[in-house]
Amino acid sequence: MDKFIVTAALTGAIHTPTMSAYLPITPDQLAEEARRAREAGAAVVHVHGRDPQTGRPSADSAVFGEILSKIKNKCDAVICTTTGGGFGMTVEERVKVVRTYSPELASLNAGSLNFSLHPLLDKMRNFKFDWESQYLAMSEDFIFPNTFKTLREFSHYFSQEDTKPEFEVYDAGMLNNIAFLLSRGSIKKPIYIQFVLGILGGMQATVNNLVFLYNSAREILGTEFVWSVCAAGKNQFRMCNAALLMGGFTRVGLEDNLFLEKGELARSSGEQVEKIIRIAREHGLEPATPEEARSILKLKGLAAVKF
Question: Which residue from 61, 109, 120, 264 lies 20 to 30 Å from 232 (Cα-Cα)?
Fold first, then answer.
């Protein structure tokens, strides 16, 4: 494709407020971040909820509703809601945003894995909020649960709402899980995959791993899928550039990486969007608009959401 989709992941559930003063927390901040990312060239914004007072990841439905409506009022970007949530959230809490607000696009994690952030405690001692150190520490003994029952139930809710799943794939076995859902009729082609690399507990962020995952997806799922890549921390732009060269899409944003350059904090996800688009244009590629992204991903359109 001559057009590629840029997703901006605005805040996530990994980084904590102490790590960057630029991490958006409140609905107003997230809406402004979405506007900046859209103006920079992102077609999709990926959103998590946070407690507006403390910044702790939250599945509160009212908070999500405020975030979604404010982003919709600020820009025309495709809004991809998380169903990954944060550490300790129940499966029901995680999927509630799809059942309540019927977004065009939402993440659907394709399998269980160890998902840990606890090594960050080796670098940090003082935190703005008490919950931050506890949150990071608990990840050492955390399994991110996405069982076959969860995958079946989530797929059912997504289908009910005509919400497109963005399958988050952290490891090769998760491609088999997607193929199983296809074989049971729980999901239908074309598939949209986000390869997530560099998380402790998942596959490392290397070009060899990305090529392996892409080739494995072709073998297992055929050719009726489109894909993107995101990578944690310093590997973000390296892996996104590799994806562009391979014909894939990219995800940047403060959820995945707090920095713009080595030692320089990004002041917004929009700055990272500008950087990856500059890189892409060196390859003769242009970013898709939100409407072009809707066509590529076969989304139902902004008029069909419930916010």
Answer: 61
